[in-house]
Amino acid sequence: MAKTEKKGGIRMKRCLQIQIAVSSLLCMFLLEMQIRTGILSPVKSGIIISTLMISLILLQLRDKSEYFFNASQIVNVLFLPYDLEMAYLAFFQLLFKFFPQATNLIGILRIVGFAFVLVPVTVVSYGKLRYWLSRLINIEMVVFTFLIFDDYPLISPNSFLRNFEYSGLVCALSFIVFLYLVLKGWGLKLWISIRQKWTRVFTFTTVGLIAFGIWYDFFAAFIQIADNFSEAIWNWNFSLLNPNQSLFFPGNPSLVYLATLEAGIFEELERYAILVVLAGALKNKKFRAQGMVLISALIFSLSHYPNMISEHKDFVTTSYQVMDVFAIGCLLAIIYLYTGKLWLAMIVHGVWDFLVFAMIPATMDIASFLDLYVPSGILVPVVINAVGIPIIIFMLSGKRLSHIEKNIYTLLKPTKSVMVVNKIVPQN
C-alpha cells in the first residue's frame, strides 16, 4: 500500500491535477474549434487528451492501493512530459496567433514558463521512482522530450529571443530545475561543486587534466581536417574557424556562442544525472568508478545517432562520430569525478562544441591526412581514442582513483529529507 504523501507532496499533486485538467481543456478546445496551431493535429490532440484523462483518474486513485500507485507512476512518466510540453507550446502558439503585436512579451513568458512545466510531475512521480534502471531510462526519456522544443521555434522579430530558444538554452535551464527536483525527491543533492582539499598533488593533477582536456578538444577537432600530424597536434589552422561563417549556423555568430553554452550546460547536467544513477546501480561493485566512466561515455556516444536525422548523415559517417566522442565522454566524466567541479567539465565540453560549430563550410571538402592510409575514414576515430585512452587509464588508477571514489561517495550522500522520502517509497 502506498504511504500517504506529506503536505508538500499533496499540494504538488493538486497542482498537477489542475495542470492536467487545463491542458485537456485546451486540447479539447483545439479539436472543437479546429484551430490549426502547427503543433497539435486532431489525431495528436485526441491521443494527448486520452492519456491526460487516464493520468488524471489514476492520480485520484494512486493513494488507494499499490496497484493504482504503480499504474499512475507508469502513465505519468511515460506520457505526461510530452503531453504537458505539447499543450504548453500549443497554448503559446494560440497567443502568437491572436496577439501578433505582443510576440516579444509572449516569447519571454514562454521561455521563462517552460522551466516550470514539469515541476509538478517531477515532484509527484519522478522523485518517487524506486529502481536505478527505471531512473536512468526515464531521465533519458525526459531529455528526449525536451528536444521537441527545437522543432517549434519562437515566433518573434527579436533575433536574440529566437536564437536563445533555437540554441536549446531554454531546455538546458528547464533541465536544471528538473534535475534539482528529481534528485531532491531521491534524497540526494545536485553537487555542482564538491569541496576539495587543494593539496599540491591535487592542484597539479587538476591543472594538468584540464590542460590536456582543452588540448584534446583541439586535437580531436583538427585531426579530422589536418594535412599532417603537426596540424593535428599543435600547428592548428585557425583560418578554418569563423563563427560568422559557421557551417552549422551560417551568418549567425551569436547562435554559435549560445549553442556552445547550451551543449556545455545541458549535456554535462545529463552526464551528471547518468553518473549519479550509475553510482547507485553499481554500489558495492569492485570496479564502480571504471564502470561509471565507461557506461556514461557509451550512453553519451550512442546519443549522437539521432544526428543521422538532424544533420542528414548516413549510418557509417554517424558511427564514426559516435566513435569520435567516446574517449571525450570518458574524459569529461573523469574531469567531474576527480575535480568535483561540474563547471570545469562544462568548460572543456564547451570548447569542443565551439570548435565544431565555428568550422567554416570549406572544411566539408577537407579530408584528414589519415584517410590516405585508410580511405574509409575509420582511422580518425581510432587515433582520437588511442590518444585519450592512456590518460583515462592513468586517472582511473592509483591515488587518483581513490580520490574519485571519495567524490562518488559524496554524490550518494543523503540529504536530511531522505528519511521522509523513504517513508513514501523505499530507496534502492
Short description:
The chain is mostly helical and about 425 residues long. It has helices at about 5-35, 40-60, 65-100, 105-115, 120-125, 130-145, 160-165, 170-185, 200-220, 230-235, 255-280, 290-300, 305-310, 315-325, 325-340, 340-355, 380-395, 400-410, 420-425.
Report on this model:
The protein is an all-alpha fold and 428 residues long. The chain folds into two domains: 7-187, no CATH class; 200-411, no CATH class. Helices cover 68% and strands 0% of the residues. The chain has helices at 7-33, 42-61, 66-98, 103-114, 119-124, 132-146, 159-166, 169-185, 200-222, 229-233, 253-281, 288-302, 307-310, 315-324, 326-339, 342-357, 379-395, 398-411, 418-424. Helix 12 crosses helix 15. The radius of gyration is 23 Å and the shape is globular. The model is unreliable at 1-5 and 417-428 (pLDDT under 50).
SSE blueprint and pairings:
Blueprint: H1 7-33, H2 42-61, H3 66-98, H4 103-114, H5 119-124, H6 132-146, H7 159-166, H8 169-185, H9 200-222, H10 229-233, H11 253-281, H12 288-302, H13 307-310, H14 315-324, H15 326-339, H16 342-357, H17 379-395, H18 398-411, H19 418-424
Helix pairs in contact: 1-2, 1-3, 2-3, 3-4, 3-6, 6-11, 7-11, 8-11, 9-15, 9-16, 11-12, 11-16, 12-15, 14-17, 15-16, 15-17, 15-18
